[in-house]
Structure prediction request, 378 residues.
Amino acid sequence: MFQIIKQSDTSLARLGEMTTNHGIFKTPVFMPPGTQATVKALGPDDLNSIGVEIILVNAFHLHLRPGEDFLQTFGGIHRFMGWSKPILSDSGGFQAWSFHHKANLSRISEEGVEFVSPYDGTRDFFTPEKALEAEHKIGSDIIMTFDECAPDNEDKEYAQKALERTNRWAERSLRKHQELSHREISMGQNPPLLFGIIQGGIFSDLRKEGAKFLASLPFDGFALGGETIGYNMKRTLELLEELKPLLPSDKPLYTMGLGANPFDVLDVVKRGVDMFDCVNPARIARHGGLYNGELIIQKEGVFFQSEFKNGILKLANSRFKNDNSPIDNFCDCYTCRTFSRAYLRHLYFCQEPLYLRLATLHNLRFMMRLVQALRDNI
Prediction:
């Protein structure tokens, strides 16, 4: 399932390959989020053209629309969205937390999460078992356990309860996964891979407790969840250094939601992270922010230099109104090969749908070039 091809001589970074039911993808890897069975503004041909090897969907949202039973009847998520490569599905623990803490639309208990659909107002109930069954029916290649997040601003008592509940839910998720996998194998099908999610908030002792507990269980990989991952990079890096030695070295490590800044990816890969996803590259593209800069591969690592702050060209700036150069001279994407900054700026201010596609295509291609540079460096 996961093979380490090469270990870096200068850091914990490693080059790997993950084998799934829908093919192999190389690590380190960035997974563009396609929450509701679509990477916003892009089709499968676009994703293939920029080198995407795996995408992310969300079982919680797909459970609400169009429903896992429909997707199973349809032939699975791959056929439904026309994507033939690997797909990872998040169970929706973060969404359940978000409903509970931001919109008061859910109630968390030991059994699971009762929530009100934001789409039609109907009541529903999600348990670890129901989440795992939904992910199996959806047909993802890698699925996640159902967890409870503990945000940065919660106290340790809350984080402790969330961690303990997450660990119990992880055991329940694993039992359900094993039950469903046995059934699928008996029918001649290959079951998906299952990752466990480590919680514990910002507290080192709780995170270590969660890592040790999950490492004792037969998961195919491990993920670090919660709002600390990627939102507070200083703390994220500290936690990675503390937790990495506690996890099996022969299994992949996934930092959920990380990648708000490309520099963050450089930092976590050096600390042994194999997989990451983030909505930010596509989101900032939609709001006029386009990545620009040169990726320099040296023995000491991959370095990024740009004339723009944080490597982001902001199209709203009037200096680009008559600029005939591409967004990024170092980029090989369709957008940069074909169109000027002036044209992209025109589309942006006219709110033309084409802008969304061209901008998203560029920023995600940058992320693909970044992870390829990291692999080349290793």
Observations:
- The first helix runs from residue 44 to 49.
- The first strand starts at residue 2 and ends at 7.
- The mean pLDDT is 94.
- Residues 35 and 57 are 4 Å apart (CA to CA).
